[in-house]
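To illustrate the input format used throughout this study, we show a single complete record. The first block contains the structure-token representation of the backbone; no residue identities are included at this stage. The design step must infer an amino acid for every position from geometry alone.
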């Protein structure tokens, strides 16, 4: 589709052609009319036709000049580089907040009474580039606790279960373990539950779900977590097992 300056130029050319035709016709008619005009007016008419032609030519010239000026004004111009100015550096891409890891992602499941240990373990996992969902850090104000925790269990690879005297009595922990077992029964049937223990309760309890874990799963031993050297040994074993 032609631009506005091109359209105006086309109209100007058309008007030029029409003006030429009308001027020729006017000249013919003028010559015919001279015989009927009084002799006193005839000398003035001889100057009228050239004057009319000059006016038409000037009008066309002004129109062409205006069209060219608008065409130059509408054309994109290159940015003016200031003398001595350095080109702006290309911004570097922002590194991802959670770079890829060689470890499985996990969710921490624990009783409220064991939160101090859970916070320490979470910090150590995060420092090793392991994505670990932890309710106090990942929940937003107003979130529905149970719904968000269940969603996290569905999205992450492992449920890292912290077993203790308090966890065995927790209905919330029991439900989270049930969800992990449900995921394990679905394709591709991968192991989801990763249990560790802080005491011997799970080895002695009669609680059905905890007793099942004792009978069917190897449980990581963090019973001496208050001893830093023993804790680090247990942590290294956990890291080895979380590696993909």
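Output of the design step:
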């Amino acid at each position: 589709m032609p631009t506005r300056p091109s359209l105006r130029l086309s109209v100007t050319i058309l008007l030029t052609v029409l003006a030429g035709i009308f001027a020729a016709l006017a000249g013919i008619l003028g010559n015919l009319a001279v015989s009927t005009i009084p002799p006193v007016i005839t000398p003035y008419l001889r100057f009228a036709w050239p004057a009319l032609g000059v006016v038409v030519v000037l009008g066309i010239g002004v129109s062409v000049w205006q069209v060219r000026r608008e065409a130059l004004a509408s054309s994109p111009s290159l940015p003016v580089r200031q003398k001595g100015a350095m080109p702006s550096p290309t911004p570097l891409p922002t590194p991802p907040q959670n770079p890829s890891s060689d470890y499985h992602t996990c969710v921490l499941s624990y009783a409220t009474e064991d939160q101090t240990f859970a916070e320490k373990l979470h910090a150590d996992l995060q420092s090793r580039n392991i994505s670990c969902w932890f309710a106090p850090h990942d929940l937003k104000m107003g979130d529905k606790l149970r719904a968000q925790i269940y969603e996290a269990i569905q999205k992450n690879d492992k449920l890292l279960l912290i077993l203790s005297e308090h966890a065995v009595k927790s209905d919330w922990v029991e439900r989270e373990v049930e969800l992990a077992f449900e995921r394990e029964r679905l394709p591709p049937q991968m192991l989801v539950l990763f249990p560790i223990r802080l005491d011997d309760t799970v080895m002695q309890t009669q609680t059905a779900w905890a007793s099942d874990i004792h009978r069917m799963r190897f449980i990581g031993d963090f019973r001496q977590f208050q001893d830093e050297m023993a804790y680090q040994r247990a942590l290294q074993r956990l890291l080895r097992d979380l590696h993909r």
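Structural context for interpreting the output: The longest strand covers residues 158-163. The chain has ten helices and five strands.
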